[in-house]
Amino acid sequence: MTNFTIRGWRTQVTEEVVSEGIVADVPLRKVTVAAVIQNPFLGDYVEDLSEAVEWSVGFGAEISRRAIEALAEPVQAYGKGGIAGVNGAQEHVIAFVTTPFGNELRKASGGGAAWISSASIVGAAGTPLTLPLAHKDALYVRDNYDAVTLYPGDAPRPNEIVVAIAVANRGRLNSRLGGISAGEVIGKDGLR
User: Fold this and answer.
1) CATH code where residue 58 lies
2) Where are the beta strands (DSSP E) in the chain?
């Protein structure tokens, strides 16, 4: 089994209280947690990335635990993604955030009938990554169409990967464009 070394963690917490001059009854909290991982797939093309997929289960549980703990409220929306350093490939990131990883985020979030929106890129150290957010149980909840930007500091170095998740406690402040509300979610098909 390949040794996946985590160099460090990044946690960002934002809380929005006022939007358009209106004070929110419930502030919008967004948490992004990222791990900086040594990329073991550098060099020539690697066909089989399954070791990263297998490893991502335990890793997904840990990164999800950290995000839920930092949010300190029930999760209503989530997203995932990552950045491969310039010596890596986008596919290397995706190997870490497939369904086994996502299932751990779903479990930690208390449900998760909806698919998890994702973004992945190749970039230099300090490249920001905007992670999409959507309701965890129903994609048709427009109030939760949102995003949060991760600023990873000195990562990823050329031979690293940044893998991140984002969680939020509610939809956008002052959302008012219709559709079903979070209170109307059935949560069976991941859409409504």
Assistant:
1) 3.30.1330.110
2) 6-19, 22-38, 77-84, 117-122, 129-135, 146-150, 160-168
Q: Say if CB 62 and CB 98 are below 8 A apart.
A: no
What's the CA gap between 167 and 29, in Å, rounded?
8
Dihedral (CA of 66, 147, 137, 30) sign = positive
43: closest CA among 2, 87, 85, 5?
87
29 forms beta bridges with 15
Q: At 181, is the pLDDT very low, low, confident or very high (cuts 50, 70, 90)?
A: confident
Tokens of 81: 């993604």
What is the H or E stretch that residue 126 is in?
none
> 39-85 pLDDT, tens per residue?
999 988 999 999 999 999 999 999 999 999 999 999 999 999 999 99
User: For residue 189, is it within any domain?
Assistant: no
Helix (H) / strand (E) element for 60: namely helix 50-71
1 is a domain residue: no
Domains in the chain, number: 1
Burial of 133 (0-12, 13-18, 19+ CB in 10 A): buried
37 to each of 82, 85, 168, how far by Cα in Å?
11, 10, 24
Q: What is the CA radius of gyration of the chain?
A: 17
Cβ proximity of 63 and 163 under 8 Å: yes
Whether residue 7 contacts residue 160, with contact meaning beta carbons closer than 8 Å, is answered with yes
